[in-house]
From TrEMBL, chain A:
The lineage of its organism: Bacteria, Bacillati, Actinomycetota, Actinomycetes, Kitasatosporales. Residues 29-87 are annotated as: Disordered. SUPFAM superfamilies: Periplasmic binding protein-like II. Residues 103-259 form the SsuA/THI5-like domain. Belongs to the bacterial solute-binding protein SsuA/TauA family. Keywords: Signal. InterPro entries: SsuA/THI5. Pfam families: NMT1. This is NitT/TauT family transport system substrate-binding protein.
From TrEMBL, chain B:
The chain crosses the membrane at residues 57-74, 116-136, 148-168, 174-197, 218-244, 264-284. The lineage of its organism: Bacteria, Bacillati, Actinomycetota, Actinomycetes, Kitasatosporales. This is ABC-type transporter, integral membrane subunit. CDD domains: TM_PBP2. It is a multi-pass membrane protein. GO terms for cellular component: plasma membrane. Keywords: Cell membrane, Membrane, Transmembrane, Transmembrane helix, Transport. One of its GO terms (biological process) is cellular response to sulfur starvation.
Length: 388, 308
């Protein structure tokens, strides 16, 4: 008696489904997807009036200045003064960690009521970047504390209204957060060859770290194609570097302290000294829906930096205790590494350099996006009263 | 399809006595005989079976096809955001392009290798332990509590342990699949061997079967169908666990493809990975079922026309 064997039936089903999909694909090739192209409205259509802001005469620096000795823009403490919104506005901010030190201006700003002074009700949510990005694009999240990673650029390329509106920090001169290599016998830091070595990373080649990492690799006879990247969890990076699982790794604050001074390891380089690589991303709600709230958010953020993070903020023990409280970190642990240089400005050309690194790493496709489709400096310019 | 019932007059003598019929006045009243015409299934069982199979097959194809078309329509009409939920046509076009460019196969092959290696190891070990524990009471007493305790540990939680044991590479992935598969096969084998009817064992003993003959002619044929059910369930779970594991600690494979494309906000590529995993899971599971049917022709079929 004839029977249809189950495997044959499964294959038949698969072939039919592939046939349906194939037909659809053929149709798809003939029609353009109107929602999948373009780069969104993003930037505000009309420039908003910018008026000088008291206490912010030095609240702006030349974006093309990337020198390591550059002093970040600063207003006087307490400036720019609050300009409360007409009604209380809720702003949802996502971050992939709530304990990282670079997040301190946001956390302290909330704790000290700087956002409340603007009539902003800020809710900070812990969300991994890949999960938060679609929510930012859809408007479920208003602000993402992240970086212009390859995913963000891919999202903008797909037409989502997302812009990088403020920077975050540059490392302090004494910081050794960055690329560390395990030295082989007889090897020196200058003579390390990274070719064919395994590199441990937290995020992968789509992270902004790819940009400084490429610089380090090229200085050590390697490039992104000649090393093996091993994606690891935060807890495994240092352990893998120590037990030989990886030959090099990007170590964050304060993890690098554990190998600093050990002759078996060498610091090969870190984030560029004068160039923030991350910060605040706005979604459509603040970019076009309620730009007043967007400016108010950055005003509060910048005021927090000027008031609490203007210089070496870790010198003040009382403030260090406050910082430890909001970041849920021991103050001594925070004090073990130098203060970050908080910097809300975005340097000119950073996006171009990042895109070049991403293209080399093969994590973005298509032509590079022009900077004005990724960066919007108008929010912090308005907050500090500077006409670019 | 049910046969039709027809009321037909019939001589009383030909009628089967019905309730109360004995009280009738003999020959004075006509008896009504209910005749059920044979249905198509009885008149032409082969044709009826083919027809039913055709309907089943049509449903099996039409339902997914209708869902895919609905999804396509939703994307085209912008009921859903096709940038976040790409249309099936976009997924198919992207998958085809990746396959044509040779970008897809390394990930498929990496996952397949891990699944096959882990599945083979886990099945062999699970069958051996299940057989021993099902057949030997002392072995069961010694190992069952320990294995029961390990069974409830989420297998993905063992990945860091395997990373420490085997380092970075294929070892942790294969070990994770093998461990997952082991428990499914072990439990089904042990239960199957313990469930072999005492009469079968006694028959073997009466014929003087030694341990090997008892295994070969009694335990194996009696337990294999149930063991194969466990192996088929394990086949699906093996794909499931490797995809989860590749998202955490691998540089290739379909799980890594899904995770990586999600990290890069490439939703179309992510869905290509998801579709590939689904196809891989179905094909692998059906392959195990197919092999199982060939190995156990005596077993009742779990799908389609029952054996006569």
């Amino acid at each position: 008696m004839a029977r249809t064997p189950s495997l044959a039936r499964a294959l038949l089903t698969g072939v039919t489904l592939l046939g349906v999909l194939g037909s659809l694909a053929a149709c798809d090739a003939q029609t353009s997807d109107s929602t999948g192209t373009g780069t969104g409205a993003g930037a505000r259509s009309k420039p908003r009036p910018i008026t000088p802001v008291a206490g912010c005469a030095k609240g702006w620096t030349d974006p093309s200045d990337r020198s390591a000795a550059r002093r970040p823009a600063r207003c006087e403490p307490g400036a720019p003064a609050p300009k409360p919104l007409k009604k209380k506005t809720k702003v949802v901010v996502s971050a992939s960690t709530l304990t990282a030190e670079y997040l301190a201006p946001l956390r302290i700003g909330v704790a000290k009521g700087e956002f409340s002074k603007e009539k902003l009700d800020v809710e900070v949510k812990l969300l991994p970047t890949p999960d938060a990005l679609p929510l930012l694009a859809k408007g479920d999240v208003d602000v993402q504390y992240a970086a212009p990673e390859a995913a963000v650029l891919n999202g903008i390329r797909q037409g989502f209204d997302i812009r990088w509106v403020a920077g975050n920090f540059t490392p302090a001169p004494g910081s050794k957060s960055g690329f560390w290599a395990r030295l082989r016998p007889g090897e020196t830091a200058e003579g390390v060859s990274l070719k064919d070595r395994t590199v441990g990373t937290l995020i992968g080649k789509g992270s902004v770290i790819t940009y400084p990492m490429e610089k380090v690799l090229s200085a050590h006879k390697a490039d992104v194609d000649s090393v093996r990247f091993q994606q690891l969890g935060p807890a495994e990076v240092l352990a893998s570097l120590r037990n030989g699982g990886v030959d090099a790794a990007w170590l964050l604050d304060p993890v690098w302290r554990q190998v600093d001074g050990d002759a078996g390891y060498a610091f090969l380089g870190g984030q560029p000294r004068g160039e923030p690589l991350g910060g605040l991303l706005f979604g459509p709600d603040l970019l076009t829906g309620d730009p007043d709230a967007g400016v108010a958010f950055l005003r509060a953020y910048i005021r927090t930096v000027n008031t609490y993070f203007a210089g070496d903020y870790k010198k003040d023990r009382a403030f260090l205790d406050d910082l430890g409280d909001v970041l849920k970190t021991e103050p001594d642990t925070l004090a073990a590494v130098p203060s970050l240089r908080m910097d809300w400005e975005i340097r000119a050309g950073t996006v171009d350099r990042l895109q070049k690194a991403y293209a080399t790493a093969g994590v973005v496709e298509g032509d590079p996006l022009p900077e004005d489709q990724v960066v919007d400096r108008s929010f912090y310019a308005e907050a500090v009263g500077h006409k670019p | 399809m049910k046969g039709e019932n027809t009321a037909a007059p019939a001589p009383a003598a030909a009628a089967r006595p019905g309730p109360g019929e004995g009280e009738q006045d003999g020959g004075s009243a006509e008896t009504t005989l209910l005749v059920r015409r044979p249905g198509p299934g009885e008149r032409d069982p082969v044709r009826a079976h083919r027809r039913r199979r055709a309907i089943e097959l049509s449903l099996a194809l039409a339902v997914p096809a209708a869902l895919i078309l609905l999804w396509q329509l939703a994307a085209d009409q912008r009921w859903i955001d096709s940038r976040i939920y790409p249309a099936p046509s976009t997924i198919a076009a992207d998958g085809w392009q990746r396959a044509a460019d040779g970008k897809l196969w390394p990930d498929v092959w990496a996952t397949l290798k891990r699944v096959i290696a882990g599945y083979a190891l886990g099945t062999a070990a699970g069958y051996l332990f299940g057989l021993l524990m099902g057949a030997l009471r002392m072995v069961r007493a010694a190992l069952e509590p320990l294995l029961d305790a390990l069974y409830v540990v989420p297998k993905l939680a063992l990945l860091p342990v395997f990373l420490n044991m085997f380092g970075l590479g294929e070892g942790p992935q294969i070990a994770l699949v093998a461990t997952t598969v082991f428990f499914f096969v072990w439990i089904s084998t042990m239960a199957a061997v313990m469930g072999v009817a005492e009469g079968h064992r006694e028959a073997g003993a009466v014929f003087g079967a030694g341990p090997w003959q008892m295994f070969r002619h009694v335990l194996l044929p009696a337990s294999l169908p149930q063991v194969l059910v466990g192996m088929r369930v394990a086949a699906g779970v093996a794909v499931l666990v490797i995809v989860a594991s590749e998202q955490i600690a691998a540089n290739d494979g379909l799980g890594h493809l899904i995770f990586d494309s999600r990290t890069l906000f490439q939703n179309d590529v992510m869905f290509v990975g998801i579709v590939c995993v689904a196809v891989l899971g179905v094909v692998f599971s059906e392959l195990v079922r197919f092999i199982g049917r060939r190995l156990t022709p005596w077993a009742p079929r779990d799908r389609g026309r029952p054996q006569s």
